[in-house]
Structure to design on (68 residues):
């Protein structure tokens, strides 16, 4: 499954790089690409291993918010 999460609070390339690394480390994430310019994370994941709430948790643990 693919999802695009709107991410609020990223201010620099370091922010987006760190979030991308943390998302890619999460079990069940097949790939994650984070764009500072788009303020978004595009995540491909295995629904049997992680859900949307789990992805939001990673974003929030990195200090950012997921906008609805």
């Amino acid at each position: 499954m693919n999802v695009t999460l709107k991410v609020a609070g990223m201010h620099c390339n370091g922010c987006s790089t760190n979030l991308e690394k943390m998302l890619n480390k999460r079990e069940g994430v097949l790939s994650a690409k984070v764009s500072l310019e788009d303020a978004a994370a595009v995540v491909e994941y295995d629904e049997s291993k992680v859900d949307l709430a789990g992805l939001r948790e990673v974003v929030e643990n990195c200090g950012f918010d997921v906008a609805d």
